[in-house]
Amino acid sequence: LTPPQLLELSKHTNKHAYAASAPITSDGEHIERYANILKGVVKLAKLTSDGRQQIVGLQFAPDFLGRPFNKKSEFDVQAATEVLVCSFPQETLNRLIKENPELEHRLHEQAQNELNDARNWMMTLGRKTAAERVASFIQFIANHVDPEKSPAQKIITFSLPLSRSDMADFLGLTIETVSRQMTKLRQAGIIDLSDAREVTVLDSARLRAATEQPND
Amino acid sequence: LTPPQLLELSKHTNKHAYAASAPITSDGEHIERYANILKGVVKLAKLTSDGRQQIVGLQFAPDFLGRPFNKKSEFDVQAATEVLVCSFPQETLNRLIKENPELEHRLHEQAQNELNDARNWMMTLGRKTAAERVASFIQFIANHVDPEKSPAQKIITFSLPLSRSDMADFLGLTIETVSRQMTKLRQAGIIDLSDAREVTVLDSARLRAATEQPND
DNA sequence: CGTCCTATTGAAATTCTTCAACACTCGTGG
DNA sequence: CCACGAGTGTTGAAGAATTTCAATAGGACG
Lengths: 216, 216
Fold this sequence. Notes:
four-stranded antiparallel β-sheet; alpha+beta; homodimer
């Protein structure tokens, strides 16, 4: 982005904070602002009419939030952790895109990355066992919190951005099954849990093997 | 697209036919051509190391095939039915995009539509029962083969583009479970099956109810 | 007519869910 | 300072759904 464009954007920009599990937008709601995530994790969720929930995407800083050129949100957007976003009106972005096609290219690339993530996750939901799903989730979070992942064997610790309930909704399982599989990973010496949220990966090779796939 | 651009494109264009279940590209393969589907249905599939398969997307005419600006295919691309595509080199498209940003916009929109489809399907895979998944699949195919879908109660007949085995891989089930659920839908009078592939929707309201969601 | 391939059906086995009880943490107020 | 309650997570046992294993059916083709 060119400096005058950044200036233009910043003039219309608002920062906004959301508490964990606060709604950001809901399914079908009209959207007139886009946003970038500055901090925290955002979940995208769909509901069936009888209340079952599936989390269909997680977004991390500095992801873009919103569907360009789509008027409606197609799912609920909620803060998973505490979230800080910086939002701006649709027209501002649309105007910037007109001036600078490169910007649309970058949004297009993010859309493709999200599509890849979604398809990888379809494999997890459709074909993996509960144990493999939970291992895949920990692997997925580890990849996202530790952007500079070392090649092997480094012991890393991080905090899960999702509650057991959200993990269940992401993994297509129940909270009880998630909890049991976490316990098994701990008993197997693959991870350590100082509390329910704080994960230390003790054996990243076996964790990866437990996902049964080079998931991403 | 402007006439000179269409002419330019057609000069580099090759038509190619694939038999049902013939591979088009495979995971990790280098891609040097893009294509448009002229006829038929294409499936995008991922494999685990131990051979489990998940179909992560279906594409219909006139969808675009290939990941713009990505060098590698991230999954296997296979013909589901007999398929006719029209392919052209990457550079040709990249050149056209440079001249005409509107083209990238359209590809971006397709990517967003595919992302919506993928996320809708994540809900199906993560949270629906076998019966709901099979009903959702029939609904999904009905929507795609009958582009001008009438609002209600019209009885429509179509041919499933997927074998039971492919349906199972799309739905995250086994072929036996798919077969049993098809039988139940038939016995309930919701659909009729003249043979395993030929579906007549007898009661579209109850079919929709059986999907337990406004899936798309 | 036999063979291959796909699909269906049945019964047993397994995985995951449901239901239920209990543990832990964190605030609040007595 | 401790008790209480709400929220979150864990664990066990019974139940349900789906898979697995196995047998059979039907069509297409040589």
